[in-house]
Write a structure and sequence with these properties.
It is a single chain. The protein is built from nine helices and no strands. It has helices at residues 2-15, 26-38, 40-45, 55-73, 78-90, 100-103, 111-118, 120-129, 136-143. Helix content is 57%, strand content 0%. The chain is mainly α and 166 residues long.
Length: 166
């Protein structure tokens, strides 16, 4: 619940054109890492949060938990897991700047609407680029989170080894 509250606050701050500080998320991410190391099956159960809250908020936590869990199984060090968790937590922060009628549209988006929605990646990256001392891999992970191995993703259409590990 603490993590969900944190996500709610930083998304609301971005929506109101206030700044966010990714360093405030470190204790939240550390708690997620601890949960994954204690019992990753229980941590995965946290992913059911989306049934109880708005999708965008729970989605940020889901991505952070999944990224940390995968990173743990890959044998990544705790400091790398922390950066990976921060990237997961903030990857969609730019959605707070997408018009709500597009963000919450129940039907399929038109092509112009989809282009606006795709802009959340650049918005997320821009918000985090303004963070003092934001780790390069966190920024890159945020920028590349919709890239695809076959090159069909966005925003740059990167493929294979051109996509960073995060």
């Amino acid at each position: 619940h603490e993590a969900l509250g944190h996500v709610r606050r930083f998304m609301a701050d971005v929506r109101r054109q206030r700044g966010v500080d990714f360093r405030e998320a470190r204790p939240v991410v550390d708690g997620l890492i601890d949960s994954v190391f204690r019992n990753d099956a229980a941590a995965a159960a946290m992913l059911n949060l989306k049934r109880f809250d708005e999708y965008s908020y729970a989605h940020c936590l889901n991505v952070a938990v999944l990224a940390i869990t995968l990173g743990k199984h890959l044998g990544l060090e705790r400091s790398v897991l922390s950066d990976l968790g921060v990237a997961g937590l903030f990857h969609d922060v730019g959605k707070a700047r997408i018009p709500e009628d597009i963000l919450n549209k129940p039907a399929r988006l038109s092509e112009p609407e989809f282009q606006v929605m795709k802009g959340h990646v650049a918005e997320s990256h821009s918000i985090m680029l303004g963070q003092k001392d934001a780790p390069r891999e966190v920024l890159r992970g945020i920028l590349e989170h919709h890239e695809r191995h076959d090159g069909s993703g966005y925003p740059r259409g990167l493929a294979r080894e051109d996509i960073g590990p995060f």
